[in-house]
Amino acid sequence: DPRRTLTHFSQDNVSHYDIFLLDESEEELYVGARDRVLALTVTPGSIHARASIMWGPTAEKTSECAFKKKSQETECFNFIRVLVALNQTHLYVCGTYAFSPACTYIHLENFTLVSSGRGQPFLDGKGQCPFDPQHNYTALLVDGELYAGTMNNFQGNEPIISRSLGTRTLLKTDAFLRWLSDDAAFVASFSIPGDDKVYFFFEETAEEFDFFERLLVPRVARVCKSDVGGDKVLQKKWTTFLKAQLVCSQPGHFPFNVIHHAFALPRRDGGADFYAVFTSQWQAGRAGSAAVCAYSQEDLEKVFEGKYKELNKESSRWTVYSGPDMSPRPGSCSVAPSSDKALTFMKDHFLMDEKVSPIQGRPLLVKSDVTYTRIAVDETRGISGTTYRVLFLATAKGFLHKAVELPKGPHIVESIQLFRTSEPVKNLLLVPGKGTLYVGYSRGVLQVPLANCSLHRSCAECVLARDPYCAW
């Protein structure tokens, strides 16, 4: 876009700038790419490579991958999928490693891979990182433990939510109990300050509806940070896993039931609002509409504290559980590892009966002929002292829409073409303190200023633009 200065970074022979991690100083950006981890020095208006690590699969792993009928041109590489700051001195990183997921540590001081001695250079990444670069994934470090939502096998039909690292028991969802449908695809995960739970946003085929075709539903699941698994029942498994359906629909239209990404905006009063972007499964093959829905943490909590669904074994139908209440409540964070009765109940009461409705009961924004791939939300104070929320929405064709939430609904104040040729945005990272947004795509990284106020040539033009970052 000629009217806006975009700072661009790319390196020869490096592709798939898929995952970002910003250093606490906000002056160093770590990037996970294909067979590479980069350390970039970033300041407003400039991005420079400080260091880079080559971490590709061994020749042996590459040939094993090819032997399994995977492509040596596009798939048998190490696509970085987990990149978290373990502490002040080390990063923890995992990659698909030619369909044989691996993890390792990076020493920050000299930016090198840590060899673990014992002849095993890397750790097994199964359950923390997907096998297939095409699979969706999410991972989050909370209090030194890694919470991950990913695919747990080569075939790609055993999704998992796991907790690893740290000193406590390794926990995971129980594949046998079908807590997740076998096509579950994770798009985001969050830990809200002051809250004792971790939330996962994903989509999967619904088991609870009698529908003649495969029906996808967007979901939110949650687990308690205090969970340590059960003593006798549900050993090494979550004892607090619950999931619920998210609703994003307009009356008279097909629901927006395919979730692409989500973002958590912490509120000043504590708690958070979750924003998510959706499309509908009934518009495949033609450009349909995209929707943004927002959900309050209270609305999520209410559903998770409500009634459960259960599968009626005779009719194979999901109905509301109407049996007696138990105390402590199954799935709540106060359940003891030894309360076998509550844990046995949890095995098949993991789906909530009520659905999570969006704030104001409808989508915030519906835009036709576009697919939003990523979302980030900033809160900024306008000149009058009013707080505005600004949505940054990246599209599958490489545009960035900037929308301001106004009393009558959001208003798209800017549409920025990020690339010369059309391609999807893979990654968005908002850095409000620096007034910038980082965009990751197949060939590089872009730094986009949140505002472009010099564009407005007069006071009237500036006022009409309705951009809260700008004042005349």
From TrEMBL:
Principal cellular location given in the protein's record: membrane
Keyword Glycoprotein: yes or no? yes
Q: Quote the SMART domains the UniProt record gives.
A: Sema
Gene Ontology biological process terms in this record: axon guidance; neural crest cell migration; positive regulation of cell migration; semaphorin-plexin signaling pathway
Q: Which UniProt keywords apply?
A: Disulfide bond, Glycoprotein, Membrane
Domain Sema residues, every copy: 1-450
Q: Out of the domains of life, which is the source? A: Eukaryota
The record's listing under InterPro entries reads: Plexin_repeat, Semap_dom, Semap_dom_sf, Semaphorin, WD40/YVTN_repeat-like_dom_sf
Q: Name one Pfam family in it.
A: Sema
Query: Which terms in the GO cellular component ontology are assigned?
Result: plasma membrane
A GO MF annotation of the entry reads: semaphorin receptor binding
Localization, per the record, is: Membrane
Q: Which PANTHER family match?
A: SEMAPHORIN, SEMAPHORIN-4A
Tell me the protein's name.
Answer: SEM4A protein
What is the organism field in this record? Cephalopterus ornatus
